[in-house]
Amino acid sequence: MKYFFMRHHQILIIGGGNAGISVAAQLLRHQKNLDIAVIEPSETHYYQPAWTLVGAGVFDVNDTVHKEADVMPKEVKWIKQKASSFQPEQNNVTLDNNEVINYDYMVVAPGIQLNWGEIKGLQETLGKNGVCSNYSIKTAPYTFECLKNFKEGNVLFTNPHTPVKCGGAPHKIMWLAADYFKKHHVFNKANIQYWSGGTRLFGVDKYEKTLYKVARRDNVDMHFYTKLVEIDGRNKFAKFVGFGPNNKDKEYEVRFDMIHVTPPQSAPDFIKQSPLANAAGWVDVDKNTLQHIKYKNIFSLGDASSLPTSKTGAAVRKQAPVLVQNLLSLMHHEKLSGSYNGYTSCPVVTGYGKLVLCEFDYNNKPDETFPFDQSKERWSMYQLKRRILPWLYWHKILPGKM
Question: Domain range spanning residue 307?
Answer without folding.
Answer: 7-112+267-339
